[in-house]
Amino acid sequence: MSTNNPRALQVYDPVLSNLARSYRPDGLIARSLLPSFPVKTLSAQYPTFPKAYWFQRLADNKVTDRTPSKEVDFIWSTENFLCEEYALKASISELEKLQAIPQLQLERNKTEHLTNQMELSYEIRVADILMPAGTLGTLEGGQLTAGNTHTPGTAWDNNGNPETDLKQAAIACYRLTGKRPNTVIIPFEVAYALAVNTTFRALLRYDATGKPLNAIEVGDQVIPNTIHGMRVIVPEGAQTIAGNEAAADSAALTEIWGKHVRCLWVDPSARWGMPSVCYRVEHTPKRVTKWSTVDPDVDYVREKERFDIITPAPDLGYVIQSVIS
In the structure, how many helices (H) and strands (E) does the chain have? Predict the structure, then answer.
């Protein structure tokens, strides 16, 4: 029997070992953002000092001969932390290992998927905590000060004035704490809107030496490293998908950090007494455990960690919400 189909006798190529498609989240920042305090107990207290006792305007401290000096003092209270356990595991059965083609790299991909899910969970948790109280309901660990937020009168992608909004954020923190934010988190879509905002682009016409600068040629990023003295962090690729593994492959991704700009004061050295907006209190660093069972024949790998995320200085964070449409 003859056929006119020229592909009928062709054989499909074998599965390539050096090529695959696997979209994965990238640019996660939470691990590197928060200073970390190692602790030996799962829960404890830490002292907090009311700022009124440190900023108070005292009476005249001038004394005369043979008169006692005036005495100053302060009060303090405590807040709690509680490190809880977070863990996920993945498994591979003996039959899966026998049937899986080598090109699938089953064990490697299962382990990477496990790590990816742990990191996504942590990123989402930190992003949610770094929002003003009441905007996302009640979260464990507390949130930023409720009043430290505003929405631009004109969206940045509609040529609003970013400088006005950034100034409002910095001044709000300064008036509450005497410190201004030193870090600003700008999600990628927001950063791109900022880069093409004509008001903001006008500021990029010249470099620090006065030399004309082409704003389109700023390098491998869309905005500068520093804005208004704040270190710029752009979590490019920090996205998630609405739904679970049943979501269609064509489903749109959403930014974990939303369409909000977070202005924060973060102390990178985690010094005692420094009121960083947010800390990671770590009891057990992330660790990997592997084990096997014989009935059923399954290999397991697990990642777990114990920590708490606290906001000892919620006044040092400010969120400019919904800056783009």
Answer: 7, 14
Identify the top-confidence range among 12-21, 164-173, 234-243: 164-173
- Residue pair 132/147 in contact (Cβ under 8 Å)? The answer is yes
Q: Using alpha carbons only, what angle is made at residue 49 by residues 267 and 33, rounded to the nearest 5 degrees?
A: 20
Tell me: the pLDDT tens digits for 114-140? 999 999 999 999 999 999 988 775 555
Structure tokens at 303: 């990642």
8-state DSSP, 203: G
DSSP-derived 3-state class of residue 2? coil
Mean pLDDT of 206-229: 65
Which residue stretches of the chain are H helix?
30-33, 52-55, 94-99, 106-129, 162-177, 188-195, 198-201
pLDDT digits (tens, 9 = 90+) for 142-159: 689 999 999 999 999 998
Q: Which fold has domain 30-50+76-239+254-320?
A: phage-related protein like fold (3.90.1690)
240-243, long-range: CB within 8 Å, 24+ apart, which pairs?
240/25, 240/120, 240/124
E strands, the chain, in order? 36-38, 43-48, 77-82, 84-93, 149-150, 183-185, 226-227, 230-233, 239-241, 253-255, 261-264, 279-294, 297-310, 317-320
Contact present, 276 and 265 (Cβ < 8 Å): yes
The residues spanned by each domain of the chain are 30-50+76-239+254-320
What pLDDT was estimated at residue 232?
A: 93
∠ CA 282-287-291, rounded to 5°:
145
Return the biggest CA–CA distance within the chain. Answer: 123
